[in-house]
Amino acid sequence: MQGSQVLLFVPNGHLLTSLLTMKYLQIQRVITAPQQVHITQGDYDGKAVIISWVTTSESGPSKVQYGTSEEKYDFSAEGTMTNYTFYKYKSGYIHHCLVDGLEYDTKYYYKIGTGDSSRKFWFQTPPKIDPDAAYKFGIIGDLGQTYNSLSTLQHYMQTGGQTVLFVGDLSYADRYEYNDVGIRWDSWGRFIEQSAAYQPWIWSAGNHEIEYMPNMGEVLPFKSYLHRFATPHSASKSSNPLWYSVRRASAHIIVLSSYSPYVKYTPQWRWLREELKRVDREKTPWLIVLMHAPIYSSNVAHYMEGESMRAVFESWFVHFKVDIIFAGHVHAYERSYRISNIHYNVSSGDRYPVADKSAPVYITVGDGGNQEGLAGRFYDPQPEYSAFREASYGHSTLEIKNRTHAFYHWNRNDDGKKVPTDSVVFHNQYWASNLRRRRLKKNNSRTATGLAATSDSSL
Ligand SMILES: [Fe+2]
C-alpha cells in the first residue's frame, strides 16, 4: 500500500488511509475482473468445454468453479495462463481452462475470478451423440466490430442457435497498426462475450488472423489468434490447433485452415485423410466442413482463391458425401447447388462444374459486417452452379431435425428483425439418399415437423 504512506501526514490520516486502501482494493478488483469470456467445445464428443478469459493488471487464478444449479458451484477445474506481446502491446493474462467430464444435455453455471470481481455465466451441453439428435447451429463469418457486426450478432442471438460455427476473420485487428492491433483484439473479445460466454463458438482461422507484420517486427503467423482462442485439436488427433474436428449432437464438424499447408503429404492433408475415415454417419449423419476461402463463389472479390484447395480436397468431399461446406472471406452471401469439378485437375479434364448428387452444397457466409464493407460485384450472368447470391450483411442457421432433414436459413440484417431470406431443407447425404437405409431404420427415425410449411426448396 504505497499510497497510504503519503496519507500519514494528513490530519486524521488513519481514517483516510483506510478509505483509500478500500478504494485501492476496489480499483484492483475492477482491474482484475475477468473479461472477454468465451467458450468452445473442449473434446471430441461434446462432454467438455474450454473456458477462456482475460485479466489485466494482475493474473488472478485460472480456476473455474461450476455446477448444475445456480449459486452452487460444487466442482472446480484448474486452467493455464498465457500472455504475449505484439509490437509494444502487452496482452492481458489470457486464461484457458478445460472443464471436462460433463453430463450431456445439462445446464451448467460457472464462475471465474475471485471475490467481488468474480463473474458468473452458464452454458448448456449438447445432447449425446445420436443420429437423430436435433440441434441448431449458427454460422457467422468475417464479423469484425462495426455497427453491422453488432447487428449480425444480435440477429443471431434472437434465433435460438445453440452453437456458432465461425468461418474465420474474427476481429480485423490487423487493419490497425502498432499497439492498436492488440487493443482491437481486446475490444472484439468484449464484443462477442454476450454470446460466446454462454455457448461454444467453433473457431476456424481466416487471413486476418495471420498478422504477418514485419514492419512492426511481428512475423509469427496467427500469434494473437492462437494465444487467445483455444481449440480441442488433440482430441481429433490433429497436430495443430488450426485444423481439427468435433462431433456435436448429430453432426461431425471438420475445421480446415485455408492458410496452412494442405497439399499432398502435409500434416493437414494427412490428418484430413484419416479424419474422413473416422466419420461414422451411423452416429453423426451430418458431415459439415468449415474453411475460410470458399471453393465455389461467383463474386468478383477473391475470385478463385479457393481453387488450390478445391484441386486437393474436392474429390474427397464428394467421395465422403460431405453435406455442406461453409466458408467466409467473400463479404457477401452465396449458396451453390450440388456440383463438382473433380474431372478438372488443373491440367486435364472438363473445366466446369457439373451437377453431382454426391457433392456438398457450398455456402459463403462472409457477410458478418466488418469494416471492409460488402463485396457487391458478382460475375454475370449468374453461373449455373450458383443457387442464390446477394451482397447483404447477415448470418445463417442450420437446424438439424433428425438424421434425414435439416432446415437451413440465411438471415439478412436489413430486414429489421430475423427474417429467413434464403430457405432450404437439406436432405442428409448419407441417410436421405439411400432408401434401403431409411427403411431399415424407419422405426428409429423421428418425424421432421413442419417441413413443407417452412421450406421453399430442398436439396
Ligand atoms: Fe478473409
From TrEMBL:
What name does the UniProt record give this protein?
Purple acid phosphatase
Q: What is its EC number?
A: 3.1.3.2
Cofactor names: Mn(2+); Cu(2+); Zn(2+); Fe cation
Q: Which reaction does it catalyse?
A: a phosphate monoester + H2O = an alcohol + phosphate
- Example GO molecular function term? metal ion binding
UniProt key word Iron = yes
Q: Which domain of life is it from?
A: Eukaryota
Record lineage: Eukaryota, Viridiplantae, Streptophyta, Embryophyta, Tracheophyta
Purple acid phosphatase C-terminal domain mapped to chain residues: 359-417
Using the record's annotation, list all stretches that form the Purple acid phosphatase N-terminal domain.
34-125
Keywords of the record, alphabetical order, are: Glycoprotein, Hydrolase, Iron, Metal-binding, Signal, Zinc
Organism expressing this protein natively = Nyssa sinensis
